[in-house]
Amino acid sequence: MILVLLLSVGAVLAANSQNNDRRQTPATSCATLKAPTIPNATVVSIQAAERRNFTAPSGGMGAFGAAPLPPLNFCDVNVTLTHGTANDSVRVEVWMPLTGWNGRFQGTGGGGFIPGTFGSTLAPQVAAGFSAASTDAGLHPASFDGSGIVFNDQLMTNFAFLSVHEMALVGKAVSQQFYGTAPKFSYWNGCSTGGRQGYMEAQSFPEDFDGILAAAPAINWGKFCPAEFWPFQVQTEANEFVPACVLTGLTQANIQACDALDGGMDGLISDPSVCRFDANTIIGKTVPCNSTTVTVSANQASIYNKIISGPVDNNGTRLWFGVEPGTNFNSLAATTPFNLGSTWLDTFVGNRAQLGGQLSRNNTLSAQTYSSLFEESIASKFGKMLATDNANLTQLKSTGHKLLSWHGLADTIIMPQGTFDYRQRVETMMGGAAAVDQFYRLFVAPGVGHCGGGGPSPNTATALNVLINWVENGVAPETLPANITTRNVTVSRNLCRFPLVAHFNGTGDLNSAAGWTCIPSQGQLASPPAVPAGASATGPLMLGWVASAILVAGWLVI
């Protein structure tokens, strides 16, 4: 599991500045809190205790190089729930500052098959003045790729959608008890699985949160998980695992070929839809590998092209999107398959015990078997439960609540085209882009990997402040501030609202947001890139729904 740190302490504390109506002292003692009533669930226990001068654990929601949090004083509440005769045991933990509450509640999410984390995630929120909560959804122990978890229908229901809703009910109820007044506003904050959880709330329980910050959302679960296996599948079919240094060299060549298309040579591809890089042009050229060089072969170039193009079935028909041009996908193209994708196919899809763990043992799947597994992944019971792809956001619109989302264009783990596709399906269903922008805005982050890193990405606290300003003051964001500091050089960008893309003005500092403007894409941002030579894609993209074949951050990551 990778922890991406995106939240600076100073910035998160600044989130308090938008709400001066703080309750400095609780209305009751921590020890006297009563168990809340949760519909269709039984509260087994509630434990509450004050914690003073608490030292926050490292990791979780922080920042690249962020200063440590100050010692914290808060009420720590643990509520255990169960459901009927399911015999599940769901933990919800709520932290509430003893002083300086900002009147807001915040729910936090997880990554992979981990529904949520506690200390490292909740501490920065308490430091910022929020009462904050997380849940384990009854998964004991949770694991990133789901291995070792014996899922039944109740546990998958918890993980897919129920536990975050119940966490919101618990968190707001105990906050109201403790402070003597209900939170004035409630927010969700998550990336990856946390992003999917936020989208699920928007689709199924939009009344829970006034504002939802959901980055790199793990929606379209039954599609992106088998797509993560695609780079391994391509290499096994080609009978060659491309050395990481060669993949890196091809990625750098891809970036160099398309970098200037946005008007500035900044090392980022702002509009991958117009990138027409073909790895065949690099055949016979050398790339550095440790202390020597390697000559790129035709087979290696073909493998690269096929991976970028994305998964296809045994007839060459597209199954899902690939990674974007210029993405470093080395983690997916190793000599062992990426664990989330392989465990999903091996363990969860159709409960296929007959695979016998062969994906983990690196045995080659035939093109037919891979294609069948892909379709089965989409149609499987668990695949449907985790899909989180319902484009009908009518209830979210009617509540007046807001969904703010962003996705990195160099995301290796969750293909950004899936998020763009979802946004366009919402537009098709709900009256077009302008209508949807009233309650749901999506921003595009060039060069940014999964939940951050690589290019300028939104600081989580800054993005949360943007969402707070939209929810509480009606100021809808046109751009989303982002930055990254490398070797003491800070690069800033204003991320563009989908489907606009960044373009350099031609003068000024490439590293400054002031030199860039958002313009319409010169291609079609929400569609697969052109298929280069050596990549097979003879049919249309099969998206897995019947009537909509329209191509259209955070912390824990998948």
TrEMBL record:
Enzyme Commission no: 3.1.1.-
Keyword tRNA processing: no
Protein name from the UniProt record: Carboxylic ester hydrolase
Family statement: Belongs to the tannase family.
GO MF, any single term: metal ion binding
Keywords, alphabetical: Calcium, Disulfide bond, Hydrolase, Metal-binding, Serine esterase, Signal
Class in the EC hierarchy, top level: hydrolase
Pfam family, one: Tannase
Xref: InterPro entries: AB_hydrolase_fold (IPR029058), Tannase/feruloyl_esterase (IPR011118)
